[in-house]
Specification:
With 149 residues, the protein is an all-alpha fold. It is built from six helices and no strands. Helix 1 crosses helix 5 and helix 3 (72-91) runs antiparallel to helix 5. It starts with a helix and ends in a 6-residue tail after the last helix.
Length: 149
């Protein structure tokens, strides 16, 4: 049983990355463009306002990068940091625990993205596609290198 689960690990991690990236992207789209329920959340964020607009850009761009698995570790690192910042500046002053200060979302996103920093994107990621292409090109170039006498 364990070996079968271990074989599925990259795919489970890939699906986890896709879901987390999609949900995070939706937050950014709602804040920046007023789609996906912004009428209930107070509308859009004014361009250039600190920290809301920058957080929304990180949510949209970082979430999209994580979703497709491109630059996953870097995008996840920045997204994790932005959610940690949001938790400690917005939520934590309202109470010690996330359940008290409505910071569950920020805390979960921060830890989920931090997990992706250390695990990588898993299967079904553009990072893996580009890595395999560059490895194939490298092996082709090594075989065709001239020999010095």
């Amino acid at each position: 049983m364990t070996s079968r689960l271990d074989q599925a690990r990259p795919y489970a991690l890939g699906v986890f990355r896709i879901v987390v990236g999609l949900l995070f992207t939706c937050h950014g789209a709602r804040s920046l463009f007023g789609v996906l329920g912004a009428e209930n959340a107070g509308g859009t964020v004014a361009a250039g306002t600190w920290p809301g607009w920058y957080a929304a850009v990180i949510e949209l761009v970082g979430g999209a990068l994580v979703l497709v698995g491109l630059g996953t570790r870097a995008a996840a690192f920045i997204a994790s940091g932005s959610m940690a910042y949001a938790y400690f500046t917005v939520h934590q002053p309202e109470g010690l625990f996330p359940i008290q200060n409505s910071g569950e979302g920020a805390a979960l996103y921060s830890w989920a993205f931090l997990l992706l920093v250390f695990t990588g994107p898993g299967a079904l990621a553009l990072d893996g596609l580009f890595a395999s292409r560059s490895a194939n090109e490298e092996s082709e170039h090594k075989g065709s290198a001239p020999v010095a006498a």
